[in-house]
Specification:
39% of the residues lie in helices and 21% in strands. By secondary structure, it is α/β, with parallel strands linked by helices. Strands 3-2-1-4-8 form a five-stranded mixed beta sheet, sandwiched between helices. Strands 11-10-9-12-13 form a five-stranded mixed beta sheet, sandwiched between helices.
């Protein structure tokens, strides 16, 4: 009888880190979470390794999702904005040294896309593009159930894609970057800069529905420039499907449908009928499921 395989799935976020035990069917057997130490990665790694040691089954590999940008070839975090103390931190090496278990590191958006491609709304397609439109903007390109990393591990780092000359700017991003226009943070910041007392992008969208001119413009910009970027992706990659996740895409009524129609109007006529934007299916567990699948697929290989 073949021994059942178990892996550890780790999802590192700017607020919380989650650790789960997963079987070969991608079933989560056990999970726990703790606050992420954004300034001390060594301490955070120690907590991760301790959590893995407490899982109900010994694991053969560890899959880790982390905010980017990341040197994916070596598992080194480069400059993740929400983890200021982790810059240039060799995450893969640190976890393997502390645990003695093979570790595989990917960008969090890549793993969410991988999960959607394997068991979510992209599972029946060969080429799947995943985009999360939330606090920030991230993406992943999944081809035949494998993450496409690019020549240097920086493929689909979408946040800094410049789509608006002299457009808004925030953080370390260049002016006119898509994350400074279409993310939830950008939508809220633009509204606040105009004097609106709002906490999240949904409130700006609700004001736009009432006909508030400034809020209509902010939401229109968010949709229009995102549609521009997705239309470019269709022209370059020709994906089967684009899966959209994140609070902006999933919680603002009609957002995905409206952006899809805009994309259809921007691509070549013969591509228009092939454009398909769908909501993500897996919710908050997508990162863990993707991390588990990453670990399992590397065991098999």
């Amino acid at each position: 009888m073949n021994q059942k395989k178990y892996v550890a799935a780790v999802d590192i976020g700017g607020t919380n880190t989650r650790v789960a035990c997963m079987d070969e069917n991608l079933t989560i057997i056990h999970r726990q979470s703790f606050n992420t130490d954004t300034q001390n990665p060594e301490e955070a790694v120690q907590k991760i390794v301790e959590a893995i040691a407490q899982l109900p089954h010994p694991v053969k590999a560890i899959g880790v999702g982390s905010p980017g940008p990341i040197n994916l070839k070596e598992g080194i975090l480069l400059s993740p904005p929400n983890l200021p103390g982790w810059w240039n931190f060799a995450l893969k090496e640190a976890i393997e040294k502390a645990s003695g278990i093979p570790c595989f590191v990917e960008g969090d958006a890549n793993l969410a896309g991988l999960a959607e491609s394997v068991v979510g709304n992209g599972k029946n397609h060969s080429i799947c593009v995943f985009m999360t439109i939330s606090t920030g903007i991230g993406g992943g390109l999944i081809i035949d159930k494998k993450v496409f990393q690019g020549a240097h591990g920086s493929a689909t780092e979408l946040a800094n894609s410049i789509v608006w000359s002299q457009g808004p700017q925030h953080g370390s991003l260049k002016a006119g970057a898509i994350e400074a226009i279409s993310s939830g943070t950008a939508i809220v910041n633009r509204a606040r800069n105009l004097g609106y007392d709002v906490e999240h992008a949904g409130q700006v969208a609700d004001l736009a529905k009432t006909g508030d001119v400034a809020c209509v413009e902010i939401i229109e910009d968010a949709k229009e420039y995102l549609a521009n970027l997705i239309a470019i992706i269709y022209g370059i990659i020709d994906p089967d499907i684009v899966v959209l996740g994140g609070s902006v895409a999933l919680k603002i009524e009609g957002f995905i449908e409206n952006v899809e129609q805009r994309v259809k109007n921007k691509v070549y006529p013969h591509l228009s009928e092939l454009v398909s934007l769908v909501p993500a299916k897996l919710g908050d567990d997508s990162g863990l499921i993707g991390a588990g699948y990453l670990a399992l697929s590397n065991i098999e290989n």
